[in-house]
TrEMBL record:
<dbReference type="GO" id="GO:0006096">
    <property type="term" value="P:glycolytic process"/>
</dbReference>
<dbReference type="GO" id="GO:0000287">
    <property type="term" value="F:magnesium ion binding"/>
</dbReference>
<dbReference type="InterPro" id="IPR000941">
    <property type="entry name" value="Enolase"/>
</dbReference>
<dbReference type="InterPro" id="IPR020810">
    <property type="entry name" value="Enolase_C"/>
</dbReference>
<comment type="pathway">
    <text>Carbohydrate degradation; glycolysis; pyruvate from D-glyceraldehyde 3-phosphate: step 4/5.</text>
</comment>
<keyword id="KW-0324">Glycolysis</keyword>
<keyword id="KW-0456">Lyase</keyword>
<dbReference type="InterPro" id="IPR020811">
    <property type="entry name" value="Enolase_N"/>
</dbReference>
<dbReference type="GO" id="GO:0000015">
    <property type="term" value="C:phosphopyruvate hydratase complex"/>
</dbReference>
<feature type="domain" description="Enolase C-terminal TIM barrel">
    <location>
        <begin position="211"/>
        <end position="479"/>
    </location>
</feature>
<feature type="domain" description="Enolase N-terminal">
    <location>
        <begin position="69"/>
        <end position="206"/>
    </location>
</feature>
<dbReference type="InterPro" id="IPR036849">
    <property type="entry name" value="Enolase-like_C_sf"/>
</dbReference>
<dbReference type="InterPro" id="IPR047500">
    <property type="entry name" value="DD_ENO4"/>
</dbReference>
<comment type="similarity">
    <text>Belongs to the enolase family.</text>
</comment>
<dbReference type="Pfam" id="PF00113">
    <property type="entry name" value="Enolase_C"/>
</dbReference>
<dbReference type="InterPro" id="IPR029017">
    <property type="entry name" value="Enolase-like_N"/>
</dbReference>
<dbReference type="GO" id="GO:0004634">
    <property type="term" value="F:phosphopyruvate hydratase activity"/>
</dbReference>
Length: 494
């Protein structure tokens, strides 16, 4: 290379270097990097931490851009019971890195047959909605503000486009939205992501009051519904209501003792098994039989019903109606009219005063029977209704409590809204997120199966965490059964 060519190359390199240096100076000036570095070094000198680089990492992490959702994905999976379900993943950009924050599996709603073409279509539609419109909608949003946006999106876009399928004639007013699993799955996954990014628990993210209380755990002891052996259809679940004021661990210990004693009594039965709810399912012909079994077990343990333990009966009557005959099939081949069912309940409650709550004793259309039964047994037993599907009809007469579940198109915002409406009025059961929503009771099913015991163990750990932090509050409950209507007055720290 000639001297002239070499000099020209040096000049070009110097010019490029000067241009790059000037661009860097301008970039740092606009980004205010020198000022940030100066403040960081000043704070470092003032605090003089043992871990210098760790301190600087934390300092600059606080200056980093907030996490943004980069994509939302869905896929078909199988749940713990081998049923087709939806799994939602939320990815976030955190400190310029794409990270998976939450994977949430959502089980189909109670109105879908466990193994059916309808269930398959719902799951496929939900996965399609998560991977396409919902993924595009959430792109670049902050996880902590997406709950309201998701609700708006659902009404503005999704609800108009998702195919509607009517319920059978039994419940004609309530549509099932095909693919609606996407709504509940993504909503909870995003809520969990927001909590995880902020380094807090989900219950703190949902509602951060000065105190939290632990809902009273209701444990399913027996399953007697249509899927259980025997002729009895009426009682889908017999639920243990413990004496208020006990810790979660105490309640579980007591319920396990009752369950073991029932199993000892039933040891000669060969058709007993554990059902999906985690509770025992035994062959029964009449509604009195499961109640007699529980009463015998409690008496043997020295905790007779009506003192330390009360019971709630989940009747699920809307699943028992024969529309062609206008009657409820309370047992195989045994049909009862709505008025006859009123008499059956009254007889049952008078014989078993430890039963202090009936859940869905009729379908919603039988308003006269709800009112009639409430007037007959209202002083000794409360009637509860499932409002998870947001019925558009007027409030049912005689109802003193409500059931809430996270299903299908129910969003976290829905749960917050519905529970806030019920505060100071009625109790509510919930399957997830019970802590933080101010609910009085939580029903997690029976005490069998890893999936359900994980939930119970998590409730125990939350109670211990709150107690250690000194923010564990308690509800003040009146004597049963009035607590189903009067509970809600928060006491001082226990």
């Amino acid at each position: 290379m000639s001297h002239r060519a070499f000099s020209k190359r040096v000049c070009e390199d110097k010019r490029d270097f000067d241009e790059m240096k000037n661009a860097a100076v301008e970039f740092y000036r606009v980004s205010r990097v020198p000022q940030d570095m100066e403040r960081a070094l000043h704070q470092l000198f003032l605090h003089r931490p043992a871990d210098l680089h760790g301190y600087l990492a934390d300092y600059f992490a606080n200056l980093a851009a907030p996490p943004r959702i980069s994509r939302v994905t869905g896929r078909q999976v199988y749940d713990a019971r081998g049923r087709l379900s939806v799994e939602a993943e939320v990815y976030c950009v955190v400190h310029n890195k794409d990270k998976v924050k939450v994977i949430f599996l959502h089980v189909c709603g109670v109105h879908l047959v466990p193994e059916s073409q309808e269930r398959t279509e719902h799951v496929m539609a939900a996965v399609l909605w998560i991977n396409e419109p919902l993924n595009s909608f959430f792109l670049c949003y902050k996880p902590e503000i997406c709950s309201k946006l998701f609700w708006d999106f659902y009404y503005i876009t999704g609800k108009k486009s998702i195919v509607e399928k009517p319920f059978p004639a039994v419940e004609p007013q309530k549509p099932v939205l095909q693919g609606s699993l996407a709504v509940g799955s993504v909503s909870l996954a995003v809520a969990k992501t927001g909590a995880q990014i902020q380094g807090i628990h989900l219950y703190e993210h949902i509602a951060p009051p000065a105190q939290f209380h632990i809902p009273v755990s209701l444990v399913t002891l027996l399953s007697c519904g249509k899927t259980s052996p025997g002729k009895l259809n009426l009682l889908e679940e017999v639920i243990l209501i413990p004496k208020v004021g006990q810790q979660v661990k105490q309640i579980i210990t007591m319920a396990l003792e009752v369950q073991k004693e029932m199993m000892r009594i039933m040891k000669t039965l060969t058709n007993a098994f554990v059902c999906d709810s985690g509770a025992l399912a035994v062959s029964h012909e009449r509604a009195e039989q499961p109640l007699d079994l529980i009463a015998e077990a409690c008496t043997n343990l020295g905790v007779p019903l009506g003192t330390q333990i009360h019971l709630a009966l989940n009747c699920a009557a809307h699943e028992l109606l024969d529309p062609s005959k206008g009657k409820y099939e309370v047992a195989t081949g045994v049909l009862k009219s709505p008025d006859e069912l009123v008499d059956l309940y009254q007889t049952l409650i008078s014989k078993y005063p430890a039963v202090v709550a009936l859940i869905d004793p009729f379908r919603q259309e039988d308003g006269d029977q709800w009112e009639k039964l409430s007037s007959m047994i209202g002083n000794s037993c409360s009637l509860l209704s499932d409002v998870s599907y947001k019925s558009q009809g007027p409030p049912l007469p005689g109802v003193r409590g409500h059931i809430l579940k996270h299903i299908n198109e129910t969003t976290v915002s829905d749960l917050i809204h519905m529970t806030s409406e019920q505060q100071g009025n009625n109790c509510a059961f919930l399957l997830v997120q019970a802590v933080g929503l101010g609910l009085h009771y939580v029903k997690l099913g029976g005490l069998s199966g890893a999936e359900r015991m994980t939930k119970y163990n998590r409730l125990i750990s939350i109670e211990e965490e709150l107690a250690q932090q000194g923010i564990l509050g308690r509800f003040f409950f009146f004597s049963l059964p009035c607590d189903f209507s009067l509970a809600g007055q928060r006491n001082k720290l226990s």
